[in-house]
Amino acid sequence: MGCVSTASHVGGSQVLGIIPTVLAEGNFARKTVGEELQIPTIQDRIWKMLDNSDTFIALPGGIDTFEEIFQITSWTQLNIHHKPIGLLNVDSFFNKLLSFLDQAGEINFIPHST
Fold first, then answer.
1. Which of 61, 54, 64 is closest to 90 using CA atoms?
2. For residue 99, how many C-alpha atoms fall within 13 Å in the half-sphere facing its CB?
3. Is residue 66 left, alpha or beta, with left meaning phi > 0 and alpha meaning psi from -120 to 50?
4. Which of the residues 6, 106, 107, 109 has the least number of beta carbons within 10 Å of its own beta carbon?
5. Which three-class secondary structure state does DSSP give residue 18?
6. pLDDT tens digits along 63-104
7. Beta pairing partners, 56
8. What's the CA gap between 15 and 34, in Å, rounded?
9. Among candidates 70, 25, 71, which has minimal Cα distance to 44?
10. Which segments of 30-77 are extended strands (E)?
């Protein structure tokens, strides 16, 4: 997280780190160059990200990253937002996920636009 926020800041972008209090109490806080906002819960974090973002770009990550990808994507289907969503597919990290989503679309479990 710290490397991405530093590179973004150096490149001239505004950086806002949004972190739940429970993680701020650990060693995750203050790794953002720029403004850091501590909020009560993970769910509050996603809403705050929605309020403060123009687009969403997911980098390779763990289960929490997948949760955020799917939540933000499902919100487009529910017309909660219409902001662009992208995956930074470093070293083909998301290829199998994309194949799974293609298959789910082919058998009509999800819309092809997802």
1. 61
2. 5
3. alpha
4. 107
5. strand
6. 989 999 999 999 999 999 999 999 999 999 999 999 999 999
7. 85
8. 5
9. 71
10. 35-39, 56-58
Structural element, H or E, at residue 93: none
pLDDT at residue 8 in the model: 82
Contacts of 103 (CB under 8 A, 6+ apart): none
Residue 85, classed as helix, strand or coil, is: strand
Measured CA to CA, the distance from residue 68 to residue 31 in angstroms comes to 20
Report how far apart, in Å, the C-alpha atoms of 90 and of each of 31, 34, 86, 96, 98 are: 22, 25, 12, 13, 13
Strand, helix or coil at 58?
A: strand
Tell me how far apart the alpha carbons of residues 38 and 28 are, in angstroms, rounded to a whole number.
11
